[in-house]
Design goal:
Distance between the termini: 37 Å
Largest sheet: 7 strands, mixed
Strand content: over 45%
Number of strands: 13
Number of helices: 0
Shape: globular
Helix content: under 10%
Structural class: mainly beta
Length: 120
């Protein structure tokens, strides 16, 4: 199983970026997928999660700015990030499988991470 994330990079405050994560080795259309991030010196945190049925969850600070979506045919999950802030600077990880609850997600598989840096 591999999760390959891409789309990170440098942005200025207020910009938008779209991350993509393609899964291979297993069909994930029946599994939840999501994004986490880890800023320097901080713990990894859940950004957003999408269920197999398309139900979404966002951590409060990302609501209204980030949108998670998935393309089952491409076995890919996306994270559209808008109105970026310097505090969004982090390594973003995609994840798949596992289980979730109202405000948590415990995936089975992790991608390698992609750096997002937002300057003010």
């Amino acid at each position: 199983v591999q999760l390959q994330a891409c789309g990170g990079g440098l942005a200025q405050a207020g910009d938008s970026l779209r991350l993509a994560c393609a899964a291979s080795g297993r069909i994930f259309r029946n599994y939840p997928m999501g994004w986490f991030r880890q800023a320097p010196g901080k713990e990894r945190e859940l950004v957003a999660r999408i269920s197999r049925g398309g139900n979404t969850y966002y951590t409060e600070s990302m609501k209204g700015r980030f949108t998670i979506s998935r393309d089952a045919a491409k076995n890919t999950v996306y994270l559209q990030m808008s109105s970026l802030k310097p505090e969004d600077t982090a390594v973003y990880y995609c994840a798949a499988g596992g289980f979730y609850g109202d405000n948590y997600y415990s995936p089975d598989y992790w991608g390698q991470g992609t750096q997002v840096t937002v300057s003010s």
